[in-house]
Each structure stands twice: as C-alpha cells, then as structure tokens.
Amino acid sequence: MPAVGAVRQVALSAGRNLDSTLAFWRDVLGMGVHARYDPPGIAFIMAGDVRLLFTDGVPAGIVYLDIAGLEAFHIEAKAAGVPFTAPPALVHRDTEGTFGPPGESEWMAFLKDPAGNTIGLVERHPPQEE
C-alpha cells in the first residue's frame, strides 16, 4: 500500500471569470498568482506548500486558510465591503490537544469569492487570550 503524504493541490472553481476570482484572492486575501496558463484558462496560487488550482468546470469548494489577526482582518475587510457569510467565532476548544497544543481554541470566519468558493479563515488562540 503506498504511503500518502501531505496535501499537494486543491482544485477550486474559477467560475466564469478567472480574472475577478484571482483579483479577489489578491486584493482581499493578499495572495498573488503563482502561475497562469491561457489557454486553457487555469491559474495557481500558493498557500504555503499547497497549490490552489483555479479552473472552470469544477464545483465550488471550501478551503481553510490559517490567518493571524483574524478579528482585525474581519473589521478591515468588512469595512471595505467584503461580505462574510459568518463573522469570527469560536468553533473548538482543543482541551486535549487533538489539533495543536492542548488548551488552545480555534476561531473561524467564512467568506466567499466571486466563483462561490467558501474560504474559512482559521486562527488558533492560546488559553490566556480567551
């Protein structure tokens, strides 16, 4: 049986307008295009070591991205007119250390890009920040 490793690539919908989808990821999330190929109309953005592939013909997806300063980002982006589907909220207290250091809590906020992909922004907080 082969050993499966880390996530290498995630495919996300580009919708009907690759330019507007990429502009959202650049202007709102600060993530630049790593490579683009026209034709066929595909682009890649790097999220750490993971490639995000944007192309038409795949359903909208969900990607979760780590962020530092989630509350400040939410305030600034919302003031700039970025619609959030859910504001920052506590989603998990990791008392056992299942997903990171024990005692941390995980906060998330959600928004959508122009192609309908859902973006979950994730921030871990040490216990004393509660």
UniProtKB/TrEMBL annotation:
Database matches in InterPro entries: Glyas_Bleomycin-R_OHBP_Dase (IPR029068), Glyas_Fos-R_dOase_dom (IPR004360), VOC_core (IPR037523)
Ranges of residues in domain VOC: 6-124
Spans through the membrane: none
UniProt cross-references to PROSITE patterns, sorted A to Z: VOC
Protein name: Glyoxalase
Natural source organism: Mesorhizobium huakuii
Lineage: Bacteria, Pseudomonadati, Pseudomonadota, Alphaproteobacteria, Hyphomicrobiales
